[in-house]
């Protein structure tokens, strides 16, 4: 366990070392939130509310969705693909730890860094510029953080799956890009799921993506109330469990492949 | 002339590689199509809940999007050097490039070209065609020439911005996430800039002029005369931004530190 | 005629040191400790046409940095470089057409395409005419025995095969000056010999000037008459290889293996001879003198004690270089 903690710490330090990245990141996230704020204001026009969300809630939704993204987002799929291509994975395999576990911990270190040094100060800045409503309700915050943890887990699991696919494809960049596009759209980062036509919403309940962005953002903006919150978090937990199965399967297949081909 | 023949050399090598990995090529084209579809879906869903966006209707916004895809496809095919820092600076490939008697930027553009992205031109034209029919737009013969010059202008604006960002690698070898985020910002040029706050509008017009790769030039074909001034500035902006990036690049090469040591 | 003329060349790198620990890393976010290091410190060097020069030094001594400045990859901080009558960095594109470069650790060829496709592309890049290419490269391909490899993609080649192809690729335009940075790293002896033989040949045939850096000093022994020794960015020796040997090594070593165990007082004591015990039956004599003293010593020892084996150790270049770096050397 302490080994994994060490990995979180090292990745955390690595992130701190890249300071150009840090400054530019804050700027770019702010521009993103700002542009979406105006886009949504224009979409709302004179409407008081759309699909049960007021303009204020929508702005909050956009801001929190982007800031949460800073926490759950990571590039471990690309890293895994690169390590497979360079043949580094074979070396990682003989190390005394679980490769996927290690990748997850690196991602977590990165996520915690961004959450503390990026999302929190960023959110404060954004709140000063744009009208954003923060809940006064402690349980909302509690559920939000629980749900944020799950969104990290589900997103990381999907990244692991995409990364492992590199064992079976010669060049994985297309798949990785497709995954990123799908997540942006179907996770609710760009559009709350409730905005989609009903049939599309039904389809999406069978997909894990809304666990990534829609659920924590809706909890934060209090778009979900009462039992809805509980069900939503439960759904996230459900997906976090289900996704373990394909990861296990593909990983054992991948390991066989690695033995046969020698990396 | 030498550079033209070099281009064909590299392109034929590229096609040979691509033919070896056919499945990857197909996946890449499909993922491009998916990306284009996702953005279209966004527009369609938004217009389920509103009739206009800052005074522009659904078909107009779709037309802007279709236009955007054409210069963007040219950009993705030739200037998409998002992994420049990682690949050429950190791994030291730049050393090799600099020992060859061809301009370094040209070599890198040639090595990183992805011709399959050109499919985006077709998607863009189809989307524009649909929107133009819905709107009943008519075009004159010279509009073709104007279209080409605006598309080239847009592609060079994109290229200029991304090359300029890539040159950061010459000054600081630390990893940056600026590149991927820039794709997001590029998207905002596809919406009418009048919906934004004037600061953002200024940024999208003069600092990161993505509005010239979407709404401004498209406004010309949509007969939005109030934007004509900006629309005709598109090729000029393309030349200016590409020249800036070229100068930055040459300055950066002088600062190159080499890899490894 | 000088192919390379370097005067007071200097290259500085600015680097920062990271503070330790989390709080240190956090402070680095706002301010950093910078320091300037001279990787190459005031070097002057002339190389004539047709010379083969070995450029040696420890890791970080500034070898690669020099090579990169000579090939136009890096801009010098100060000093002047004229190579093939040009300023490498200023006239880069024109200049690099007159040189060939091989980086042993980095491929010049395209990974995914067949070797001959890479060659074809490079032929265009260097604007080599068909006749020139056929005449010159036919010979190169034959000598390096890479004909059968030409239709294979680079990623399928072994290191030795790839290295030979790299060398051929660097010679497509038949450059009068060749830079080789660790060309034999990781190669087996047979491939090394093949490459050395080839380099000698082109040097004789075309009067190609070769500047070579390597860790493997046997390369230098086999190829170079002249060596340039670099330490901490400065040239500490520039001259003939055999002169380095005689200057650096005062005297010789004689190793005696006796039949029985020998105590120190049973040995022969002469002025300028020092003894060192290696194991129970083996002693090493450090002789500070010429051949006469050595033969005198051997005959005296052999008379006194039964001998199993005597060996006069030739000091290898590697040892000389190691000695120089360990003890420092006052060479003119």
UniProtKB/TrEMBL annotation, chain A:
It comes from the Bacteria. The keyword Glycosyltransferase does not apply. Keywords: Membrane, Transmembrane, Transmembrane helix. The keyword Transmembrane helix applies. The chain crosses the membrane at residues 21-44, 50-68, 112-134, 140-169, 181-199, 229-251. This is ABC-2 type transport system permease protein. It comes from Mesobacillus persicus.
TrEMBL record, chain B:
Keywords: Membrane, Transmembrane, Transmembrane helix. The keyword Endoplasmic reticulum does not apply. This is ABC-2 type transport system permease protein. The keyword Kinase does not apply. InterPro entries: ABC-2_transporter-like (IPR010390). The chain crosses the membrane at residues 26-47, 62-82, 115-132, 144-171, 199-221, 227-249.
TrEMBL record, chain C:
This is ABC-2 type transport system ATP-binding protein. The lineage of its organism: Bacteria, Bacillati, Bacillota, Bacilli, Bacillales. PROSITE patterns: ABC_TRANSPORTER_2. Residues 24-257 form the ABC transporter domain. One of its GO terms (molecular function) is ATP binding. InterPro entries: AAA+_ATPase (IPR003593), ABC_transporter-like_ATP-bd (IPR003439), ABC_transporter_ATP-binding (IPR050763), P-loop_NTPase (IPR027417). Keywords: ATP-binding, Nucleotide-binding, Transport.
